[in-house]
Design a protein that fits this description.
Blueprint (H helix, E strand, L loop, with lengths): L5 E4 L5 E4 L8 H7 L21 H18 L5 H4 L2 E9 L4 E8 L7 H17 L5 E5 L5 H9 L4 E3 L1 E2 L4 H11 L8 E2 L14 E5 L7 H14 L5 E6 L1 E2 L7 H13 L6 E2 H10 L2 E9 L3 E8 L1
Parallel strand pairs: 5-6, 5-9, 7-8, 9-10, 11-12
Antiparallel strand pairs: 1-2, 3-4, 10-14, 13-14
Length: 302
Amino acid sequence: LGPAPILRAESTGTLAVLTRCSTLVTRAKLLAAAQSIAIRIPAPRKRLRWPVRASKLLISEWKRVVRAISCAALPATSAHRDSAVTDVTALRWCAPTLYIFSIKPMQKPYSEACDRNKAPILSVLQSVFSSRTKVLEVGSGTGQHAVHFAQHLPHLRWQPSDVVEHLPGMRLWFAEANLGNLLEPIALDIDEPVWPQTGADAMFTSNTLHIVSWPRVERVFQQAGSLLPVDGVLAVYGPFNYDGRHTSESNARFDLMLRDRDPASGIRDFEEIDGLAAGVGLRLLQDHAMPANNRVLVWSKS
């Protein structure tokens, strides 16, 4: 099948449809691996029995399925690679098991908030990242910010990152944008004790500190202090409280909604955040007011 997903038939009579996998795996792992298959496999025409005289029928049935896969298989582009599995069925006859996957192309994830705030944020980043060369974005989400900022800051190499389950969606945005300075997204979980060494001299995160728990907020700043070089820049976008008070009624309602959903989340106090930054050697440079009662805070590593 060339660049199409790999088909593997073992002596046990099990046909597995995998992506860049060299060994047969359990059904659960197979379903996870199949997230990147962009094909549709038809079910067998009839249920097969196991008498010896059916062996030729069995072989022909396998060949028919493989032919159907060959005809339906699509090139392994990033868009196809990130298709979503909607159903998996194990059809058993004789000894073999055939896994039938119903696939539909994944839709690009979309955040209306990203569309609204990307221009105001860019107006700040154009200044604070003017002398930077590479930015690590923590929690890239849909990937919309990464595309917009990489497009308008061509002197930067933009390194998106997020937990593994968010990477397929953002790859759809990146494939469409086709920007040379927008790097392949990497898996980054805030909870990991060691973050990837990316060589970035700047970090950016948007709408994360009020979503994650306080220990995770602490970890973000610990890693920023550890990974950034001297004069490295950290820029953070989101809502903040000042002097222990909300800056607007809408922020107060938003904070209540966050804490009702997850008591560990909530809008953070600026003074506590700046204290975390100072504790890891980051000095506040700028505090920019943004639309909808948000801010962009900028620190530099001294």
